[in-house]
């Protein structure tokens, strides 16, 4: 059965282009379009789509306000369509925090090859969104379940300078990474991360993470020393590798070819960590579409590093974690809320074992 999609965008041209690109895929049926959230609300009731594509910035009603109401009252998979601007990046990250599954940047109209590549990307993300686990938005004060350990409590029992945590993620990962980093103490071991994200969004993403984490989150620069208490992400459209420099690690940034169709790629990071840190590292794959990172995580495990993945129940898309499990790359499968403490525990116990 085809995936039923509703396209919501205030631009008639964009609505037409998106509709034609999506309808060209035999697994997708565009059941309708809407020029603003008010019309979208009525069409959702009438057409019952499986997935919505939603413009980030709309003049008549804030797309974020509409998304928040939708995720609270009738949660469903949403793919945001955003402009590659500083404001577009910030609003898109807010949308992901509210429960949107994924996002694409607006197509470059009139460029045939660009549209062809774009068609493949948006169709893949709509299909991934259709399989996503979407939960109702709950205000923080109302969240149920045991509270995670306070960063200060974890900091009291964890001090190390020579361990490395490597994390990879894709769809759903912007919020999963935030959830992990906000539970890390300020003196946690260095964390190196790769998240599939467009180049123009990377700086806004790093700044958002830095606001939420006791650690110092930064965009890595080539040759930079890897330090405890810091989390490093690659600059936009670049791979991040870790190299050994005597007894220390440094960041290596390059614009090499995409790996698994991605730049940055998780496999690139994990393979470098396996080679440079071996058993001194801990690896984790969080929610994401595809299989990037699975082979790299297996290489980390074979090099002696403990490895874990996010479980299916708490993943937005269990593509990357599931691929790692299938490959035999994961020592443990854990819900997202248990991952921060377990990463620290593994790094800490590993530190004592290797000391």
Automatic annotation (TrEMBL):
EC top class, as a word: hydrolase
Secretion signal span: none
Record's keyword terms, sorted: Chemotaxis, Cytoplasm, Hydrolase, Phosphoprotein
Record-annotated active site: 170, 196, 292
Cited SMART domains: REC
Family: Belongs to the CheB family.
Comment, domains: Contains a C-terminal catalytic domain, and an N-terminal region which modulates catalytic activity.
Name of the protein in question: Protein-glutamate methylesterase/protein-glutamine glutaminase
Provenance organism: Pseudoxanthomonas taiwanensis J19
